[in-house]
Design a protein that fits this description.
Distance between the termini: 25 Å
Strand content: 15-25%
Helix content: 25-40%
Number of strands: 5
Radius of gyration: 15 Å
Order of helices and strands: EHEHEHEHE
């Protein structure tokens, strides 16, 4: 049924997305799909704020994100042969949809934190991805 699955990974909150990772793994095991893990380094902003960062900040942040994502992949998905890791930079929801299109995935599995008053049902990133993705989106509560 599914051939390719994308699991966005929040490297800063690995514990809260275990159920999403487990759900993605179940679908991968059941369908034989390939699994793409994606970590996103958010854009720190423009103008005055970025002047406080070293010139090579973004490059180093992307390198470190890839190191941490590979470590996570090796620990959490040990033995999975059709596993791909990706790191992107920018707005979280836009990068998820962009990578899904680029990789031709047919399912995005996303974790969503417990709703706050302003979120109501799901987080803003998850809601945006659900509305704009060109494929199915599975939202998994922690």
């Amino acid at each position: 049924m599914y051939k390719s699955i994308l699991l966005p990974v929040d490297l800063g909150n690995l514990d809260t997305q275990e159920k999403a990772a487990a759900s993605a793994e179940l679908v991968v095991t059941a369908t034989g799909a390939e699994l793409h893990l994606l970590a996103i380094v958010p854009d720190p902003g423009i103008g005055f704020v970025t002047s406080f960062f070293p010139d090579d900040f973004q490059e180093k942040a992307l390198e470190q994100a890839m190191v941490h994502l590979k470590e996570y992949a090796d620990q959490r998905f040990a033995g999975k042969s059709d596993l791909h890791v990706h790191v992107a930079h920018g707005t979280v929801y836009r990068e998820i949809v962009s990578k899904a299109e680029e990789c031709g995935v047919d399912l995005i599995v996303m974790g969503s934190h417990r709703p706050e008053l302003e979120d109501y049902l799901i987080s803003a990133n998850t809601a945006w991805v659900s509305r704009h993705a060109g494929c199915s989106v599975m939202v998994v509560r922690p």
